[in-house]
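Lay summary. Proteins are chains of building blocks that fold into shapes, and those shapes determine what they do. In this project we predict the shape from the chain. Here is one chain we studied, written as its sequence of building blocks.
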Amino acid sequence: MEHLLGQDWEITPAGGETGEAFFAQNNGQKLFLKRNSSPFLAVLSAEGIVPKLVWTKRFANGDVYTAQQWLIGREFSHSDMTDERVAMLLKKIHTSKPLLEMLKRLGKTSLLPSMILAVINAELDEELLNNDIIVDSIHFLEANLQYIDNENHVVCHCDVNHNNWLLSEDNQLYLIDWDGAMIADPAIDLGMLLHWYIPQENWEDWLIQYGFELTDDLLLRMKWYVIAQTLISIQWYKKKNRFKEMEKWVQFLKEMDLK
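And here is the predicted shape, written in a compact code that computers can read:
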């Protein structure tokens, strides 16, 4: 990594699943480096959704490195997610034409509910398919698939976990880690956020801040996507032998109304 910045820089891994991210610092200057990040990052930076992009460098072997501001700040906690700025930033993302056009230029097409269901049926292993709550969840997805139809597809982050919300020391909120971004029904993001972090009695007020009305159609779409994403997460955690997290999401399904 020293060939990027020179021998005077201290470069350390930033963690994460891919091992493609690094912290770099030298005489008070701090950068967040990432290998082979998407060109989408430039638009996210221009829109003020992620920390500022400082430079991009392409090397002869085809690798592309980006450097962003390494901000002093903190991740949001579970309780922070009720902050109205979360609703405002998510609305900004979902209504951004530059973000949508860039994903389209990068070859992204709409993620349809039928595609998600096909992935679930293809990837869940035999042991999980013998679990009654998993079976009931799949039946719910299949029975309601015909009703999960929304043509207003937008840029969705698809992992609005509180750990991906960064509040800088100057009180600027960012949403980071965009590797899983898709063009899809905004109910994907809304469902995860509301089901995980917002008491149900506050959903209507939260959605007013965001700019939506709480309708039966939206409720069903959010529920459908939350169940689908939970099933995918259960299989992912099982493959990683992270059984405590897997059981947490199995329990989450048990608490859902699957009728």
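What the prediction tells us: The CA atoms of residues 125 and 235 lie 8 Å apart.
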